[in-house]
Amino acid sequence: MNILKSSLLDTRDLENLEIQPIDRGYGPVKIQTYELEMTEGCHEAEKLFHKLLEDINICAPQSLGKYKSPTGNIKLIQDKRLLVHLRGPYNGPIIVEEANESYFRFSTLQYHQEAGFIEFFLDKNRRDAILKIRSTSRAGDKLFNIAFNYLPLGSKIQDAMWVGFLKKFKDIIKKQIDCKTTIQKKSEVIPYKQFHPQAYFLINMSS
């Protein structure tokens, strides 16, 4: 069972874990998109996003979980492996698939409760900005498939983690500039056979 194995994971185990892509999951694909819109907060949002690349724990809800690495360095660079050490009954091993000044993406590793990827994208213009977080995944095993797709547990954990992340980002921004902010969530469930990953990335991966 993934939940037992993930609860025992340590950062020293990360190098031995395989990537757990979405095709190894169970059930339909769930796409959860969380957005923080910041009116006239573009410059401050851009600076804070750059800081996230150095230390994502700046905005991670510490009451729920913390990002860790074997060396203690959690700078987001391609192929960096991290363990999201959660307060709950399991942990989340991930790998950085891509990271740049406005976008980064994690994919799940073996024993994660989900199979798929999560993206963070700062969509900005001269004045305004929208920080988008999109989780695209299936349940990582048959047991979690029940909680993930038929009980509210899976969605509640995701909501607490990512709405909490956006709230911390917002609070930091509002200490620097008095800008208007709104947070919203969108959900979509797609049968796996109808799912094409490239169509759901937050950015055009071919660009």
Give structural attributes.
Alpha-D-Glucose-1,6-Bisphosphate, Chain A, domain 4, 207 residues, single chain, alpha+beta, 8-stranded antiparallel β-sheet
Summarize this, please?
The chain has 207 residues and is of the alpha+beta class.
What would you say this structure looks like, in words?
The protein is of the alpha+beta class and 207 residues long. It has helices at residues 2-7, 42-54, 142-149, 153-174; strands spanning 26-39, 65-68, 81-86, 92-99, 103-108, 114-124, 129-139, 180-190. It contains 4 helices and 8 strands; from the N terminus they run αβαββββββααβ. It has an 8-stranded antiparallel beta sheet.
How does the SSE layout of this entry go?
Layout: H1 2-7, E1 26-39, H2 42-54, E2 65-68, E3 81-86, E4 92-99, E5 103-108, E6 114-124, E7 129-139, H3 142-149, H4 153-174, E8 180-190
Antiparallel strand pairs: 1-7, 1-8, 2-3, 3-4, 4-5, 5-6, 6-7
| Total number of distinct structural domains | 1
Rg, Å, rounded: 16 Å
Overall 3D geometry? globular
Q: Major sheet, described briefly?
A: 8 strands, antiparallel
By CATH, the topology is Alpha-D-Glucose-1,6-Bisphosphate, Chain A, domain 4
Helix content: 10-25%
Distance between the ends: 39 Å
The percent range for strand residues is: 25-35%
The CATH class turns out to be Alpha Beta
Structural class: alpha+beta
Order of strands in the sheet with the most strands?
Answer: 2-3-4-5-6-7-1-8
Q: Give the total of beta strands.
A: 8
By CATH, the architecture is named 2-Layer Sandwich
Order of helices and strands: HEHEEEEEEHHE
Please tally the helical runs, counting DSSP H or I stretches of 4 or more residues.
4
Provide the residue-averaged pLDDT: 90
